[in-house]
Amino acid sequence: MDEDGLRVDLLHQATAARAVIVAPAHQFPAGVVLAPARRAELANWAREVDGPVMEDDYDAEFRYDRHPVGALQGVAPDHVALLGSLSKTLSPAVRLGWIAAPER
Q1: What are 46-76's pLDDT values in tens digits?
Q2: CB neighbours of 86 closer than 8 A, spacing ≥ 6?
Q3: DSSP annotation of 27
Q4: Measured between alpha carbons, how far is 4 from 10 in angstroms, rounded to an integer?
C-alpha cells in the first residue's frame, strides 16, 4: 500500500492471488482512500484473473474530512462483492450485515 492505496501492480508481479479483500474507503492501517486509477486497475485485475474482490465497506459512511467515496462494487459488479454492516451506525448488538454479491 502507498498514498494511493492498494498496490495492484504487486498483485500482478509478486503473487498468484486470485482473490483480494479491500476497504477502499479507508484502507487499514494508513486510512488512505483507494485512488480512482487504482480502483480501475483493481477492477481490471479481477477481470483478468477472473477472481473475486471482497469490498469491506468499513466506516465508509463516516467521512468528515472529504466527500463520500463510491463503492468499488459499482465499477465491477460482476467481480466485486460489497460487504457491510450496521455495527458502527447503530450498534454491534444489532448483528446485522449484508453481502451484495455478483450473480455468479
Answers
A1: 999 999 999 987 665 566 666 767 788 888 9
A2: 94, 96, 97
A3: B
A4: 13
The pTM of this model reads 0.82
User: CA quadruple 91, 67, 100, 8: dihedral positive or negative?
Assistant: negative
Percent of the chain with pLDDT over 70: 88
Asked if 88 and 60 count as a contact pair (C-beta separation under 8 A), the reply is no
- φ/ψ region of 31 (left if φ > 0, alpha if ψ in -120 to 50, else beta) reads left
Place of cell 500482478: 12
CB of 9 within 8 A of CB of 53?
A: no
